[in-house]
Amino acid sequence: MNIYTTTGYKNKSVNIRPEKLYTQNELDSLLEKNEDNHYQERELKNETRAADKLKRLNSKKVAKLVKRSNRILVSISSHALPFDSFPNVINIEEKRVTIINRHLFSSEVHSIDIKNISNVLINNSIIFSEIVIISKTFEENEIKVRNLRTRDAVFARRIIEGLRIFENENIDTNEYTKKELIAKLEELSTTKIVK
Known about the structure:
Helices cover 39% and strands 29% of the residues. By secondary structure, it is α+β, with helices and mostly antiparallel strands. It folds into 2 domains: 5-67; 72-188, Ubiquitin carboxyl-terminal hydrolase 26/29/37, pleckstrin homology-like domain (PH-domain like). The N and C termini lie far apart (100 Å).
């Protein structure tokens, strides 16, 4: 006779084989093991879900950082008379300013985080202007780029000053398109002193 019978124990059913009869202690032990296994499975699933969620959050953060660090808002080149064979370049990104000083066989690249810029100055001459970025971290403390058009130098200063304000206020710039962000930064930093 190979018929299984079911008995109720604390609202749980247990299959009992006729060839083996279980004592109450054995039955309690089997039910406890069964509950432990279910509990461990649930904990494992919860841990797996938590790890997957953390991985997704981290990948979103990394994607945002990559997007923010690679989006060049403004790129300005120097101009010397009659022509400039090795123009210097200022690239203004959302989180940093990169200055490339080109020479005949070499170039220097300086990157300054927006949060580390303490001031931005413009020195005007008859034809061209010079932008001076004062950093809190560099040993020389200031980086100069000469032979810029005055309107380009003023525009770069406005964008950098606007980004400094955004950084100080912890404003997330990911929500803006490049065009919207530049317009907001210009609007934010337009003062009589900057003109």
